């Protein structure tokens, strides 16, 4: 079978790919009544006709309330990045950096914190990741959550992507366990959906979400010349989808004097950027190794 990359996926409307959940609307043999019970119970409230009329009028006013558009500039409501991506080459110090951030829970997906003291928990598969999410939903006091790394997350969510596909009409009879084996690269759609669902679930559970990723070199052509660029190590369209969703993307690299630099500047080799004003087009010394140990400067990022 020809191995097609995501870029070869044909998602034109003519193919009619249906990603809606599969619902069997045929009647059951034992004719189970699934209609809602609308009979009054003992606790039901008796509403008089006059009260009912008043409620209907209030509802009508609400539904017909006109949108009021602003007539002057609306002030910004956010300062710090809600979702921050930091990517770099392996062994550059990403895990050590986030371990120094106060009240930051690191979700370690590739054993990067084994030699680091940190507020951390491991997830080796999607079931363990789901257990962490469920535990967080019960309540916590973390100010930050870091996923280390999103490069590994893309592999871990494959069972979830397969489940999403099997919940569709077109995939309800699928017997496989890897959507990346689907013809014409159709499975990448469900990988992207699963990945972003997990990211957005974590984002709803914490004030600030940090996403750690690896860097990969790519050959690109600009102005007739081939140059080596650097980009986040994710598959195909997922890079641009995530890039549009987050508030800041920074490249971490080694500087002089045992310093690590976090840059939000875009150039011919790398695409970075930030929405917060204090991060736009900026370089920061974000950590340095001294005789006293590693010193970090997170107060430059989260002010």
Task: Please name the defining characteristics of this protein.
11 strands; 22% strand; 24% helix; globular; alpha/beta; 7 helices; disordered N terminus; 11-stranded mixed beta sheet; 303 residues
Strand content: 15-25%
Helical run tally? 7
* Helix share, percent: 10-25%
Protein structure class: alpha/beta
What does this molecule look like?
- 24% of the residues lie in helices and 22% in strands.
- It is built from seven helices and eleven strands.
- The protein has helices spanning 49-63, 94-99, 126-137, 150-156, 158-166, 188-203, 238-245, and strands spanning 83-88, 104-108, 120-122, 144-148, 208-222, 225-232, 248-254, 259-263, 273-274, 283-290, 293-296.
- Strands 1, 2, 3, 4, 5, 6, 7, 8, 9, 10 and 11 form an eleven-stranded mixed β-sheet that branches.
- A hairpin with a 2-residue loop joins strand 10 (283-290) and strand 11 (293-296).
Short description:
By secondary structure, the protein is α/β, with parallel strands linked by helices. The chain has helices at residues 49-63, 94-99, 126-137, 150-156, 158-166, 188-203, 238-245, and strands at residues 83-88, 104-108, 120-122, 144-148, 208-222, 225-232, 248-254, 259-263, 273-274, 283-290, 293-296.
